[in-house]
Amino acid sequence: MSAEESTDDPEGIRTRPPTDAGRGGRAPRRSPAGEARRGGRATAAPAGTTPGTAAGAGPAAGSGPADTAAAPGAATGPGSGTGPTARTRGATETPGTPRADAARRGPVVAALMLGMALAALDGTIVSTVVPQIVGDLGGFTVFSWLFSGYLLAVTVTLPVYGKLSDTFGRKPVLIAGIVLFLAGSVLCAAAWNMAALIAFRVVQGLGGGALQGTVQTIAADLYPLKERPRIQARLSTVWAVSAVAGPAIGGLLASYADWRWIFLINLPVGAVALWLIARHLREPSRTRPAARPRIDWPGALAIFAAGTLLLTALVQGGIAWPWLSAPSLALLGASALLVAVVVVIERRAAEPIIPGWVWRRRTIAAVNLALGALGLLMVAPTVFLPTYAQSVLGLGPIAAGFVLSVMTLSWPVSAALSNRVYTRIGFRRTAIVGITLAGLILAAFPLLPFPGEPWQPALIMLLLGGALGLFQLPLIVGVQSTVGWSERGTTTASVLFCRQVGQSVGAALFGAVANTVLAARLGGTGDLDSVAHALADPSSMTTEATDHLRRAVDAAVDYVYVGAAAAAGVALLVLLFVAPRRFPVIDEPKPDAPVR
Predict the structure, then answer these.
(1) How far apart are CA 495 and CA 362, in angstroms?
(2) DSSP-assigned states of every residue in 268-286
């Protein structure tokens, strides 16, 4: 039987042993005698081959009959899911998947949830106390960098942390990330002006990049293929709770304490997570490489510089300066030049931060592109829906936040149940169903009546969360399941990186769309922020002027949702024409102990 034929197990999940997934995401033909069993562990692959590979924000789990290719007769190691890799430098590595026993896995999962809570709560809490921060420190013209600086640091460090976790292990990277995040929190609490606070938020972001990527990678390491939806559902629940609890906690601290406490409350949460990780996380034993691992510092610095310039241009373009102004063109040109430098450096590096196989393997490349489109379309509900709820529907900030938060309630439920779908029809088909539904739901938003009732956009968001749960989780579970331990961190980081870049591109693109529509409706002047501020005090305008502005905002947000539906269409095309029909999932044995 060839490598592209499949063998079904009783549950209808097709798997393959760890092999080179490079050519179109499929396993090459290989003789069963090519991999001998030695004590239940596969021998090293010939030098120069690359094992299959596996970020998130996301989940990782089994595949359906239409998604996975199997190659019979190949050996796999117990507790591993991956084949060892012999690097061209001559070092042989025998990785395995961490198999914490029942007494240790629970505390590690708790630590991962606490670590995720640090990152999830950060943005929602800070956004509620901006008025108090500005009133105390000043700097109203630059306060947006409290969020932009953090986002920049998280995004550009994700690939670096992913590679470091594959090279040195997850535990030291996660511990370093938590320590850095807590150090940034202490510094933020001690900030004496807005410039210092922005700088310390960047320090926080440097730790946040390690938190986001490494937590997702460890979650995939801990659980075997068919059980990963459990941990991913728990992590998704953390984000859902944070979306609701963050503004409430921030509002309470701002009302009854000092804004500095929003950073200090990170310390006990981070300390508990740090203690649990240090005490309970056990990583797989690996043979020492023949040569000391080399870190691609030139590549890391080039990636950091290119990402910083590009994201700065996207975040500030059209806000701090016009899109066609000298600053925008200079930043975009310099970032394009640095991207070319990154490609040259990474092609020559012995251990590149972003290896070429991330884009050569169809499965990983397709998931990267699809989740990049997800990041783009998510800008519509997360950025523009609150403005719509307040300016068009006349809701207060808390009620507007609730309209958005219902999406975070249906998303984890849908994600947790998605394994019942993709184990039957496959990863790719499940994601196609999810993104098709999401596109239709987004396209239905402009059909809402004006001004409408709050339950109508809330229902749209509830349905959208359910559809995106079917889309994101199977892709992340699927791509993490196609790679071994030594490549899972890099793969996870690449997925998260593409999603973050998609969000930045979406914010810039849809911001320009909204402002263009407003300018056309208002006679060539106006932007969404200024109009929203004017509508915050409608008593200063006539009824006719207020209605005219509200209709303009309604039209602008409608066009944004049409653009988001188009982004969903792009993701659908990627799944149809780029993603392989079968995800080359690596076979993994059953866990040593039941999952808690």
Answers:
(1) 13
(2) HHHHHHHHHHHHH--PPP-
pTM of the entire structure? 0.75
What distance in Å separates the CA atoms of residue 379 and residue 452, rounded to the nearest whole number? 22
Decide: helix, strand or coil at residue 90. Answer: coil
Q: What is the mean pLDDT of residues 565-592?
A: 84
Q: What is the DSSP string of 454-505?
A: THHHHHHHHHHHHHHHHHHHHHHHHHHTTS-HHHHHHHHHHHHHHHHHHHHH
Q: Ranked by mean pLDDT, which of 2-11, 23-32, 199-208, 407-416 comes out on top? A: 199-208
Decide if 158 contacts 500 (C-beta within 8 A). Answer: yes
Tell me the pLDDT tens digit for each residue of 508-537. 888 888 888 888 888 766 667 677 777 776
How many angstroms separate the most distant Cα atoms in the chain? Answer: 83
Contact status, residue 51 vs residue 482, Cβ threshold 8 Å: no
Distance CA 376, CA 124 (A): 19
Peptide bond into 451 cis (omega under 30): yes
The position carrying tokens 């039209």 is 555
Q: Which of 15, 11, 10 is nearest to 70 (CA)?
A: 15
**Cβ neighbours of residue 255 closer than 8 Å, sequence gap 6 or more:** none
Are 161 and 213 contacting, i.e. CB atoms less than 8 angstroms apart? yes
Alpha-carbon distance of 161 to 145, in angstroms, equals 23
The CB density around residue 143, as the number of other CB atoms within 10 Å, is 18
| CB distance 80 to 249 below 8 Å | no
- Map residue 38 onto helix, strand or coil: strand
In this predicted structure, the answer to whether residue 352 has a pLDDT above a threshold of 80 is: yes
DSSP string for 286-300: -PPPSS-----HHHH
Sequence-distant (6+) residues with CB within 8 A of 160 are 209, 300, 303, 304, 353
CA distance 187 to 484: 38
Which residue in this structure is represented by tokens 């409408």?
Answer: 452
One-letter amino acid at 387 equals T
**Sequence letter at residue 199:** A
3-state secondary structure of 594: coil
Q: Which one-letter DSSP state was computed for residue 86?
A: E
Cα angle 415, 417, 418; round to 5: 65
Q: What is the DSSP letter of 317?
A: B
DSSP state of 17: -
Helical axes 145-168 vs 194-222, angle rounded to 10° = 40
Distance separating alpha carbons of residues 263 and 258, to the nearest angstrom = 10
pLDDT, tens digit, 9 for 90 and up, residues 14-49:
455 444 333 344 444 333 333 333 333 333 333 333
> What's the chain's length in residues?
596
- Report which residue type is found at 316: Q
Cα-based distances in Å from 73 to 3, 11, 49, 84: 10, 19, 18, 16
